[in-house]
Structure formats: C-alpha cells, structure tokens
C-alpha cells in the first residue's frame, strides 16, 4: 500500500537562473567564491592533508577532524557549477581532489585524513566528536552531485565503498556498534545515496542512525566511558539532539546546524518510507522552530555558547549567533518539508532565510563571509586577542570553515529550489528570473519566469509546450503579501498558500502575477524581550536595517516614529543600483545633560534623515555598525 | 613646601553604625557571612594549603595562585569586626591563620602557598599572572587591619618581612627587577603600610610600581619572553592597565577590579606625595569612568570576556558583568577621591554603588553571593555544563572566590566611610544611623546621626561636646536630591555639593536635614544603545527593578507608561518590612497573532498591576528573572 505521504510528496526540478536579484550573487560565488575557497583550502593545508603526510614532528599543519568536510562541500558546490555550465578548470580541480581521495582510501574503504594521519588506531571510537560520520556524509553528497553533473562515477564508488564499510560497523546486529554521529549529516546523505544507487542498505543504515539516536543506554556515554573519558559530562546530550528518541523530542534543542541536518534526514526518511508518524514529528519540530526560535532574518541558533538554541523567544539582537550554516540548514529543512507537502508556510521561511540571513553572509564581491549573522552590531574590542577589531566584518576564511562552502553549494544549486513537480502539475515556490524544463503527461514543457523580484512584485510566467496539455500551475502567495492581482479569467483556487491555475495550457500562454509590495513595519512577539517597543521594516521578503554609513549621529540614538512616512529609493551610493532602500525622517534621541550618564530628564528627539538598507547588503560599503530593530515612538514631532 | 593637595586632603573617621538600613545587612555579614566564608575556606582546602602539604600525587587539592588573597581578605574583614566588638572565637580563627602564615613564611620573608608548594623554583618569574604581588598586598592590608584592631603586631611583622623581600627584588636599581604586578593591589597596600609603619621604603616601592607601570620596554613582554612563552600575545596590555604610563592613560580600560585598585593607589600616592599631576590623572580617569562606563546601579565592567571595560557607553543590561569586586573597588576609589577633595561627586557615586550593586551582591541572610550583577536576567540553560540552571541566582561560593571576602571587608569597615575629618571640621558623606567620636580644636565631640535613610529623607544630627567649639559641619546634598530643608537660622553656604554649617556648636545642638524623596524616572544617555526608549526608577539613592515574583505576565512584555502614576508601598510580602516598593499600573504588550513570531500588527497594550522593588533585594524571594530598565510608552490607556 502506498501511504498518503508517498502519493503527495514531490521533487524539485532544476531551473536555470537567467537574470535578476540572484544573478550577480551567484556569479560572484561561482567566480570569486569557489576560487577563494579552493585557494584557502590549498593555503591552509586542507588539500595537502589528503596526502596523509602529517607527522607529529613534521612541518605540515595538523589536520582538523572536520577538514575533509570542507573538501567535500567544495566538490559538491563545484560539481553543481560544472553541471550547469561546463568549466574544464573547475572540473580538473575536482578530479584532482577525487584522485587524492582515491589514493587515500584504505583497502577496507576507510577514508578520513585526520584519523589516518593523526590517530589511525582510534577510528570510530569517538563518533560523538570525531566528525568521521559527518565527513563521510559530505563525501556522499559530493559524490552524488558530481555523478549527477557529469555521469562520472569515480567519486561515487569511493563514497559507496566507505558507506559499505560504515554499514558493516554500525547497526542493530549484535556484532555492530550501536552508535550514531555526534554531528548529524550522514543520515540525509545516505538517503540521497539510496535514491541515487537504489541500494537499500543505505536507506536501512540511515534509518538505523535516525531511530537509534537518543535511545538508552546513551551511546555517547558508553563510548566516552570506553575511551576512559567523561565527554558527555562537559556537553549535554541535547547539544547533539541525542537526549531522546527523535520522535519523542518536543523541543528544538542544541547545536543549530546539527538540528537542521537531523530534521532534514527525518523528513527525507518520512517521505521515502511513507512514515506519517515521523512526518508528524518533523511537523511538530518545524512549528516550534518557526514560532519560537526564528529571527526575522531567517537566522536561527541565538547563542554562540552552543552555536544553537537556548529557550523559546530568546532572540537577542546583538548577541545573535545565527550561524550561516544554520540558515543554510534551515533552507534544506524547509525544502524537505515542501517536498512532503506543498504548503507555503515552508517556502515562506525558506525565502525569509534566503533573502536575509543567507544572502547577508557573503560580501557582494563573493570573497568574504560572515560566520555569525547578528541583527545588531556594536563597536567592540577583540578582547581575547592581540589585534583589536573595532567592527564586526566579514572574513575571507575561518579556522572552522564550514560556512563558505556550505553557502557555495546552496548557491550553485539554487536553481533547484524554485519549482517542484507536483502530481497535477508544477508549483512555483520562489520568484526568480529563470527558465525550467519539465515533462507532464507526455508533453515537453518550458516555463520562463521573468521578474525583478524582490525589488518589484511583478512576475510573468510564459509557457512553451510542444502540445496543449492540462495541468495545474501553483503560484505561491507569500506570507508578507496581502494584496495581489493575477491575470486571466480562470477560477483561481487558493490552497495551502498557493494559487492554483488549472487549465489546458497552450504554447506561449502567459500568467502575470503582481504582488503589491509596500514597506511594512514588523513587530516581534513581545515574548522576545529585546524587541518590545521596537520595530523593523520589511518590503517583500527583504528585511531592512540601518547602518552607520548612512548616519551622522550614533546609531544607538536612532528612533523611528510610528507616524513617519517612509518611501522607497533606488541608486543608493555604494550599493547595486537596483537595491531598494527605505528613506524618510527619524529621530535622534539627545540627552539634555551630556556630562551625565543618567538623568531624570527624558532625552529630547530631534529629526534626522532616515535611511534603511536591505539587511543582506550591510557591511559592503564601509566598516561600521548596524541594527535591524529600532525603538518606535508615538511622537510625531520633536 | 606643603602642596595644595596635602593641605586640603582629609581622612575618614570610624563611626559606629547604630541602626537603620545597614544594620541587618552588616549583622548578616558579621554572623553568617564571615562564618560561611571561613567554612568555605576550610572545606575547599584554602586554609590547609597554608601548610604547604600539596604534592603532585597527593590527595590535597592543588592550591590556586590567588587562594592566599582569600585568606588575607577574610582576616582583614574579621579584624575590622573584632576591632568594633571583640569576639574571642573570631580572634582565635584569625590567630590560627596568622600562625599558619608564620610557619609558612620562609627565612627570606617569602610567603605564597601556591608557589611554595607547586612551583617553588618559579618565584617572581611571572608577576604578570602569578598574583604573588597581589596576594602580598592583601596580606599587608590584613596585617594593618589586625594591628589597628588589636595592637597585635604578629601579622604586621610577617607582612613587613615579606614587603622587605619584595623591596629587595623590585625597583629602579640596576640589579633589581623592573616589574610590577599583573593584578594591582600591592601598590595601595604599600602606601597603607607606609602610613602605618612610617617606613618610607614602602612608599618608595609603591611609587616605583605605579610609575614604572606601562613604560617601555614592556615588562610583561620581557618577562614572558624570559619564560619562553608569549603570554602577552593572548592578552592585551590594556587588560592590566600596563599599556601606557599611568599618567598618560586617557581611557578607562581592561579588567575592572585591576583598574580600580590601580586608581586607588594613584590617588593615595597623589595625596601622600602631594602630587598634583597625579591627582589630575586620577580626576581624568574618574570623569571618564563615571560619565562613560558606569551603570545606574553603580556596577562597572560590562563584559565577562575581560571582566572589564569595553567601549564608552557600552552598557548592555543582560550581559552586564558588573563584578561585585569591581563595585567594591569603585567604593574604594571614590573614597580616595573624597580624601583628595570633599566634593559630593565622589560620594554620589560611592553611594550609588553601595545601595545598589554592592548591596545586591549578598543575599539578605548573608549566606549567598553574586559574582556578577547584571541589570537584566533571562531564563537560560547552563549550556556548558551538565547541570541545568534555569535562573541566575546567588551562590554560596565560587572557584574564584574574590567577591565574598571583598564584600565582607567593606561591610565590616563600612562605618569608616560616613565621615571625613576636614581641616575646618567634619563632613558627612553618607546618611547612616550612626555615632562618631572626634576631636576638634581641643574639644572632644560625638556626633549622632539618626535616620531611616534611604527609606526616609530625614536625617537628624545631634552633637555632644565637652565645650563650645567653632567648626564646620558639611552635609552632602546628594545628586538625586533637588529639594531639601535644613533647620536652624545660620547662613548655609553650599560648596562642592555640601551644605556648610559653620558656627559655634554647643552641647546637644541638633541639625535636622530633610531631603524630599520622590520616585524619579531615570533615563540613560541615548549613547547607551540598550536603554534608548527605556526608563528606570530611583527613589533616593535606591534604583528599582521589576522581578518576576511580582508578575503573572512574562517580564519581557512589561512596558511603563510615561503617564503612569506611581506610589510608594511598604510591607511587601517576602521583603523586610521597611523596604519601600513602587507600585502603580503598567502595560503588558500582547501580540495579536500568538501563532506568529512576527507580524505587521503592533502589539496591543493591556494594563497590569505594576510593582518595582529595590534592585538590591532582588532574588531573595524566589528564583526568577529581573529587569532594571523597561520600555517606556507615551500611551496612557490601552
């Protein structure tokens, strides 16, 4: 019997991004981003580490436990790029890395540059912290991407050999280890590997890792005891989402990237196995995540202490960690939920993360990255180090460099997040100037989407078909959109946030969908302590911030009147010409006693020109500070 | 020639605290506090460490480099207590510790339980981090206190022997080390030792340490290089206030307690040597400190990263570190500035720290302490540990236990901060129900101060004298006080914030000083980002907060209307009966979309009963959260 889920679940179709908002960003990633990351991997010894040459007394830098994942994510990113548009140099770099991996792989399939070089006798004795299974998962994703892009099976074979070894070591059989990785990733990768190879051992192993997680006795405690350490004593099991079986988890906890990758795997497993109770568990976690733990920018994981979740509604702006990888992981999780059900709630969050937290994490030139994406920055000292850094800025690299390549693989595959093939047609989740080819009911179709979104709310779909064909085009109505117009005379049903245009389509048919895109004031739930009395601005999916580059007064003093008339402005100096800023008049709060820190006299409010820019472009003009939320006053004049 | 400073500088006179606000707090400290700390020092091995029994493979806990300072500060605190009211048990405990110190002291005078036991060959090779000079300084302060309290010279002799050794090692002579301690303390202690013994070697050594600090080549860098480490590479010299010569320092930087102890020593040295340029340096640092780095509670040092200062106006509420020792140090610094000049600006800050940040740091029962004193707390996980702590609460002890004994020595000597003897009479800086004896112009005088301050603004001074005598009584008009009445018909000059009552005093003369004490709204300079649009309350010197114990709604949602009528209330359940709370009506912000974290609909405001309690009593009724600043709205009805 085919379950209800399996009947309704869908898959994404690759579209080509032709123009618009993302084009320069993706070009920067493809040209500067991929090159920068490769060079950094060379410079920092990550590529050389694949040669297993490290010796305790040698000159080579000691590899880190997660270096292999940087390599793998870069290969994955580059493979998508090669698949879209062949690039011999890029392909050669990929093949060079594959060659090194091939040389490194042990006869039994084992492959990990840290353990082979540094602790060869300690394989799989510390899966809580070793990142072995995490690195293996990324290797699988890279292999699948390269195989799909080129048909070349070399890396896929390496990945399968390693997966077979892991399958021989972990599992429910009495002679196998009852463990699972401390950083989830292999679970979702194994499902991809199953879907790519058809080998259901991989599905079974993924299911084992997912279902075994959090069961008693706790594997991480037993594993630590076997090593003679009490590793779990210094980190709660919640950090790893390993405190309870996954279906029984009733809160979003721990390290944010770990959580996202687990939830992705749970959603995939629910889909592939038609497991409704697991789908319900995903839905429960999704709802908690987006209603209690999500920043307005799509950032998640508020604390730098655990790079993760703390308490419901604990969403400070300044200390916001919001790791780039966590927002990328949120896009992955949202896309998986979309495959389970074409519901705009998922695409709304996916879009929120994409246009804000994710887009902010790379500089416009593609060469520098944020690891953390706070909603407010201050001048500060780098108190722990020698060098004094006055402002929070993007960096070209990190010791723990998970973010740049994670972002890169999302960007080189961004065309695959626009549409899903639905049972009765096709659904448009994102508004990106693009072109997609698909088949339906024997017809060969091409759907061109033309738009300047998110700067303009007009989207025109044009269909090419080799024959008239009846199907449904679903167009998402975003959560921020309260007014829109759609062309044509068809009855337009709205279902789970999508407009359903069901008709017999002719070649060259067009649909014009126009969303009104006013500047909106956005307020957080007052359970978010830091945002009470404060407001932020949003236009379309784009969240705004103020940046010191636009102000002569200290940003701390800027207050927005609830009566302020705000309007759009393009061609802001130093920003891409099409970027829409928001301008008007705000107040600057001024003390009446400049010599006293505290006073019984309320500060006075003086008018100042107000400029807000999209959050994602902050930090691209000059170093300075930034704020997403501002205090809002009911005063209308000083 | 006697310099201008030396002519005007004054000294504090010990008063006996008779009744009022501080009585139960000081009793709790004297009874529970001193005992708790002594027991903790026993339990944790600090006292046993004085026996130098630690062996690498033994059972005794390894002493820490600053353990000796805990012992010394407890002796100092207990000595003041014994001096006020003899207590044989306490004196016996002190003498027991002195005996252990005597046994431990080396023939050359060296005395440090950590170095003697753990690294005997490494004496004075790491004064940047070793706390040897810091511990020595506290030993001197303890010795002086015990000598003054009892006339017993045993500890004083130990301290002098150690001081002599240090003097033989550090100094400008070519054969001496050109160093100074990484944690200031010995500088101020040596000046006290000079003032107690009259031996000017101690003054000269203190002056050397102060003047040498921050000169190039940097001693800490040379010392680290000599050890073969690059210790300074991981901590900026600003942390130690060792980046520039002290007179050239133009900002308040680094570890807050370190900074306060240095500034104390600078002020003392300026006073003793009549050094006006050094006094000017103190004045410069004082002004920067109180106008850019001071919390409304008298807390200082906003960051936990360096336990210290960051940037001007960087005064976040939730992350506020505000170490107890730093506020205690601020009281010390303010009292030294008061000795240089009878100016109410210093006493105002001293009082602010005392009634708020300092008073908050001990529980009402004297048994638990805050190390950090934030202005806002949240529910939180203890993310780094096994145990999950939901609320920030006081603890009975700390691994680094500097705060309890520091607080304790301030409390047992609190009577000495009320009055200074001035050239032309006496100045009353604090309003504390007390009695002081002093001599002036051959007359023996007693001044009784009766008051319920800070709950009531009325203070009655009654003078007893054995003969009529002409002198000036200075009474401070606090910065918060804009309306007051003073009895009597004399011309009442106001000078540097003090009312000068100059007359021929007769026995039984009284002066009644009545300060109006309304509830005031207090606003921070808008350069303090976190406080813009927010307000706090103050009545007299007491700063208020809201605490979850008084609320049915989440504290994050509480907003105060600028129109709210606020009134006083005593006898709040769970608090001492005389504590004045502030009550009225506030609003709770309510989202119109409980299922959505973000919305374009502004939250609505519903009335809720408002209760604010003095900051210093928070966390004494039940565990929960607290806020000092609240958003303020101009709305007057929902």
TrEMBL record, chains A, B:
One of its GO terms (molecular function) is hydrolase activity. It comes from the Bacteria. The keyword Hydrolase applies. Residues 520-631 form the Non-reducing end beta-L-arabinofuranosidase-like GH127 C-terminal domain. SUPFAM superfamilies: Six-hairpin glycosidases (SSF48208). Residues 426-517 form the Non-reducing end beta-L-arabinofuranosidase-like GH127 middle domain. InterPro entries: 6-hairpin_glycosidase_sf, Beta-AFase-like, Beta-AFase-like_GH127_C, Beta-AFase-like_GH127_cat, Beta-AFase-like_GH127_middle. Coiled coil: none annotated. Keywords: Hydrolase. Residues 17-415 form the Non-reducing end beta-L-arabinofuranosidase-like GH127 catalytic domain. This is Glycoside hydrolase family 127 protein.
